[in-house]
Design a protein that fits this description.
The complex is a heterotrimer of chains A (186), B (432) and C (377). Chain A has 186 residues and is of the alpha/beta class. In chain A, 19% of the residues lie in helices and 25% in strands. The two termini of chain A are 33 Å apart. Chain C has a single domain, classed as Cytochrome-c3 Hydrogenase, chain B. The chains are: A alpha/beta (186), B mainly alpha (432), C alpha+beta (377).
Amino acid sequence: MSDPENITEETETKPIVEKQEDLPKFEKDQSDKITAKFGSKTEIAFVKPDRIKVNVKKEDILDVASFIRDELNYDHAESVTGVDFPADKEIEVVYHLGSYTDPQLSRQVLSLATRAPREDNPNPGNDSTILPSLRDIFYSVEFHERECFEMLGVFFEGHPDNRRLLLPEDWADLPPLRKDFAIKGR
Amino acid sequence: MSVIAPKFRLGYFLKSLTDNIFWIIILLTLVGIPTLMLVLFFIDLPVLNGTLLTPFLAFTMIFHPETSVPLVKSLLYTDFFKIAAFPGFGFAALLAAGTIFIERKLLAKLQLRVGPLYCGKVEGILQLMADGLKLISKEIIIPAKADKPIFWAAPVLFVATAAAFVSLIPVAPGWVIADLDVGLLAVFAIIGFFPIITILSAWSANSKFPFIGGIRALHQMVSFEIPLILSLLGAVILTGTLNLSKIVESQSNYWFIAFLPIGAIVFFISMLAELERIPFDLPEAESEIVAGWLTELSGMMYGLVQLGSYLKLYAFAALFVVLFLGGWQGPMVVPPFPAEIITHGIEAGPITVQVPGLPITTQEMLNGTLWFTLKTGAVIFFILIPRGVFPRIRIDMLLSIGWNKLIALAFINIFIALGLLYAGVLGPGGLL
Amino acid sequence: MTARLPPGLQLEKVDERIMTLNVGPQHPGSGHMRLIIQVDGDRIVSCDPDPGYVHRGEEKMAEYRNYITNIPHLERPVIHDSCNILYPYCLGVEELLGLEVSERAKYVRVIASELNRFTYTLYWLAIYGIFLGHSTMFMWPAGDRELAIDLLEKLTGARVTHSYFVPGGVRNDLPANFEDVCLRQINYLEKRLKTYADIFYDNPILIARTEKTGVLSREDAIRLGTTGTVLRASGVDYDVRVKEPYDVYDELDVHTNVLKNGDSYDRSKTPWLDMLESCNIIRQALEKMPKSGSVRVKLKPNPKGGNDEVYKRVESGRGSLGAYIVSRSKPEPYRVKLSVGSFRNLICMPYLLKGEKLGNMPAVYWSLNYWPVEADR
């Protein structure tokens, strides 16, 4: 996941069998703007045609998200995904951001990822797995963050309504999408 | 076959047969013979033509045509026959059953499907009977906290009111159960009962969805009663009487709909709203409030309400025909009965029915009934069609139609009728 | 109340004026989810959607299956639109495994995807009709849907849950004579679709009931992150097939239907216009399709992806459907997330229903093109 070194012209073809080393220009411009503003606080995970991934620490995510919304014109979040990495003892939450208003960005999906520390005996809402909520910046993440909370145990601070959405009200087990929750019989 | 009687054994079957025979004999002797004694000792048998009408004589008279025909004729003109068979409950129920069947078939064809097909040999004609048997056999569930006396009484009251409405409609000249001089006013009074019964039934069920449905039904029915009454006043103005039979008689030259079309339209729309037919079926809006005020009714209570609904439909359509389409008036298409039939009976080939006094009914009655049924059928057809074409209307749109637009149109209709009357065109002493 | 409540339940004081209605799963007007609606007379005061009645843990179970056995598993959220829900997954897996899809397979995929748009949208339209009390509008789309299902049965062997798309192409080629049958049925279906205008879209009662209700302005539609027909009915010109063409959509001429008002009437009309557009797309695809070629790529057993992640999206009947796949060099994916259009549009429900009349509730709620099973996954 290192920074790429070459800048060639934009490749708009669909991905083919061999991986290429040159990077698309438009996406590289976008990621450069982010690194120019935030420097070492962010890390560009990859730059692919139409897809950029930015890793941020959880303290800075509100600033980065506001920058992305105001300067880069991304206006909504397509989805919020939580991925559990027990080996790193972290849970990664990825926001996929898109833009409806900017015609140049209609193909792009920017993945904004943060990590939250993970505990072995989770107590959702009351332990250290806390992330700031992006609901004030992107309103559309409201229900997605609720689902992430109940499925992985990540508490979103500042979210007006951290309640169960899909799970039944009397669920008393581990958050289901964690890797240590095993489906019975498999 | 073996599914129906999996444990069939001949011995058990014969035993059940002999059991039945035994019990029938016991009942006949222990109950039947004392009853017969009671009847013969305590009830006075009538005297006919100087002879005592014993049961034996009654049986022979029934099977002897020339004495049975006057008996039948005398029965025809009794009140009981009028209430139970024609033009009362039997006729109305038959038409209601026919309406339900036609409605299902008509809607099916409109919606590219077939409708009832399997019950009965001809295109599912016995479907209604099957549905009725099904409803009778279902358990009647009463909600625990419901107000039981009112909840039980409401469907019965509904059918009773609908039946009272049916009793005012004249079908043929002289064939009306209740020939009131204020017939139309009685109609209005009876129509006023329906919202009360609906709201009682809905409220006593003690559940949210029936409650909302009942309130909606109350709003709907009350707000459409006024245009209903106002639209009928045009016909009253032109005839000067409230008697329904006289209104029909005064339409012998022309039908009122020719001069009061606006009133007919207002009455038709108000009729659809009173009957809770689509597009006005809010009280029973299935997708919003489960089944509205019918939610908690199950089994035969639901059946009674459906029966009452369709009796009401027949009665309203018949009222429309009586007031605007000329009732039973129509050209005489029934051929007059030849004189020989009345004196000698019908002679046809090797089998002759030598019964003087046939036919049982008169020519006017048959003709009037025929025209009345045709016209009512046409009106019912037009009531059924919107069900396949329109979605449901919303409550505030409904109320604005009932209170604003229809009352205005009804008043215009009244002014037209007054104008025609005072211009001397119609009515008593008019040109027509 | 001194009794202890079981965990997860809470005590609520009953207000004298406000009534709480459970437009619940056991309701002919709700689908497989619950809306807890509080009404004051005829006005809805608040609406709290409660999905999750059909939640089966699709994403968790997908981590236990390898890439190929995930195919019949992941199509279950929307069984009659199964090609569209497998589409982003297959595109993503092809990128992870580095597979090349043949031209003919791409055209077949486009045809199957558009046919699935018919089956889903006609079903949705039928239920929309019956929610408004229009029983004819329930029967006609449900009957016409049989034409599309018939074609899909010829093509894939199943009426619903087709399991037709595999990474690398499709499962089998078109049967003999399929092009003619398809063309004939699509022409007839287009004629039938046009009759819906007479009975439904020009019906004055429908127009009076759905116009100006549940208005979603353009800014709100963008801010709430809606997608699909809800977005296009509010004036935003965004269709994934046009903006980010996948497979052969860049060679086909797709016209996006955008309506301006953002009320329930427009939201009910956009899917119908999209269906008419699908007829054109299928006709073009049938013309331009290469006449021969293989449609499937031979895979090694238990293919593994590298340490990579991919996010692909597709336009389905409900909106843009995305699949986010994370792989870690094992035959099973590490994480599969389906970003479905219904879940994204769920946020419109409390937003639009607040302050509406109770009579407008089915018209607004179902016009959001919400499929409860998909939102729950």
